[in-house]
Structures are given as structure tokens and as C-alpha cells.
Amino acid sequence: MILRGDGAAFSAGLDFASVGKNPARLALAFAKIPGQKTNLFQRACWAWRSLPVPVIAVLHGRCYGGGLQLALAADFRFSTPDCELSVLEAKWGLIPDMTGSVTLRELVGMDLAKRLTMTGEMFDGRRAHEWGLVSGVSEHPLTDAEELAARIATRSPDSVAATKKLFQNTWHRSPRAAFAVETLLQLRLLTGRNHTIARKAGTAGPTPEFGPRR
């Protein structure tokens, strides 16, 4: 799935003027969703993690605050060199509360995460790439995203979904826990139809035609 903004920006963040008109509704959005680990604001970003396909964010123009958190929760991010990014919550005396405490730590060290969150400083796509916040930077990030998506689409949809689940569920866990997840996912893949299709295609050479995701 490719995620991009329509118009002059990927996302300039939360519209405080609009949200502030209904304080009761705003307060309700902070309530944890029953049966979920997130509230409504967090779910807007965390939802990307539950999708069984890669989510690729394409950044241009401005990417501020909540918009940046939407992008950070994606699996990959491609940006134009001149895209402006910022953890802009600092400007309003706030903190990033749409999963930023998790997604920032996955990509940068604590000192940089604190610096960006405390200052709200602006930085461009080139610097974001240097810091590891985006996967690639070019004048045509949509093309980069589409090329990556096309390459991934040649692989078994089962193994792609399992790979996403594997790393998301084990990245900060112990080796023992990670190895257990590896084993369970691999056993499921080995008994699936798409593994058989991939194995036969790998031997014979034709482009595999995979079935629906298991």
C-alpha cells in the first residue's frame, strides 16, 4: 500500500482550529479503544502495523507533527530532498502522542529522538535520510515506492506478511522469544500452497503465480 498526500504536502499535522471546536469529542478520542492497545489518535498510525502488506509512505512538501507520525509508522518512507519534516508538537507545548514514542525509537537513538521532540526543529528529506528516518530520498519518491512495491509483489504474499509480523513482533524481544516466533511462522509457511508454488518456480525458472494470501 502506498500512502501519499494530495496537494502541496504529505500532511501538515493536526488542524487545531477544527479539533478545538468540540472539546468533548477530543477528550473521547484519547480514551483507549476497548480491546485495543491504542486510543483513536494512535490507531490512525498503528493501523499500518496490522496490515499484512507493506505500507510505503511517499513524502513531499511538509510532513509535520501527526503527519510525521503517520509516516514513521509505515514500513518504508521515501522523500523528496526538500520535504520539510518536524516533530512540531514542541511548538504547541505538546509531545508526539500518535505512536511517536515507539516509532521514533525504532529508527533513531534516544538522544536524537529527544532533540527533535524537545526543539521541534525543521529538517529536510536529505537530513532525514542521513538520520535513518526515511528509507530513501530522490526527486521522484513515488517512483521509488512503486518500484519497491513491484519487487515485493513478485514474492509470496504469505512470506511477505510473515516477514512483517516476524520483525514487528521480535525486534525488541529476547532471542528465545524471537526464535519461537520464527519457528511458528516458518512451519505455517512450509505447509502453505504458496511455498510449493515458490519452490517449483525457483527450480523451473518461470515467474510464480501465487494464490491468495493464506
From TrEMBL:
<dbReference type="InterPro" id="IPR029045">
    <property type="entry name" value="ClpP/crotonase-like_dom_sf"/>
</dbReference>
<dbReference type="GO" id="GO:0006631">
    <property type="term" value="P:fatty acid metabolic process"/>
</dbReference>
<comment type="function">
    <text>Could possibly oxidize fatty acids using specific components.</text>
</comment>
<keyword id="KW-0276">Fatty acid metabolism</keyword>
<dbReference type="InterPro" id="IPR018376">
    <property type="entry name" value="Enoyl-CoA_hyd/isom_CS"/>
</dbReference>
<dbReference type="InterPro" id="IPR045002">
    <property type="entry name" value="Ech1-like"/>
</dbReference>
<protein>
    <submittedName>
        <fullName>Enoyl-CoA hydratase/carnithine racemase</fullName>
    </submittedName>
</protein>
<dbReference type="GO" id="GO:0016853">
    <property type="term" value="F:isomerase activity"/>
</dbReference>
<dbReference type="InterPro" id="IPR001753">
    <property type="entry name" value="Enoyl-CoA_hydra/iso"/>
</dbReference>
<dbReference type="GO" id="GO:0004300">
    <property type="term" value="F:enoyl-CoA hydratase activity"/>
</dbReference>
<comment type="similarity">
    <text>Belongs to the enoyl-CoA hydratase/isomerase family.</text>
</comment>
<keyword id="KW-0443">Lipid metabolism</keyword>
<dbReference type="Pfam" id="PF00378">
    <property type="entry name" value="ECH_1"/>
</dbReference>
